[in-house]
Amino acid sequence: MRLIRIGNVMFKTGLARSTIYKFIKTKGFPHQVNMGGRLAAWVEADVDNWIANQISNSR
């Protein structure tokens, strides 16, 4: 299981930081894993699955 930081999440999804956090609250985007303090990361497989679902739903 690989964890990725917000910059990689933004690169993979093409979304801005604020949009990612908005989608966490409203559109089922995967929640981050708190690593302590202000450090957070996402499970890469969860982000990849979300992207795949978005593609599937758009077709």
What does the model show?
The protein has 59 residues and is of the alpha+beta class. The chain has one domain. Helices cover 56% and strands 19% of the residues. It contains three helices and three strands. Strands 1-3-2 form a three-stranded antiparallel beta sheet. Strand 2 and strand 3 form a beta hairpin. It is globular, with a radius of gyration of 11 Å. The model has no long low-confidence stretch (mean pLDDT 95).
What's the total helix number?
3
Distance between the termini: 29 Å
Across the major sheet, the strand order is 1-3-2
Percent helix range: 55-70%
Mean pLDDT reading? 95
Global shape: globular
Secondary-structure-based class equals alpha+beta
Q: How many structural units, i.e. domains?
A: 1
The major pleated sheet works out as: 3 strands, antiparallel
Q: How do the helices and strands follow one another from N- to C-terminus?
A: EHHEEH
Question: What fraction of the residues are assigned to beta strands by DSSP?
Answer: 15-25%
Count of individual beta strands: 3
Q: What's the alpha carbon Rg, rounded to whole Å?
A: 11 Å
Low-confidence stretches: none
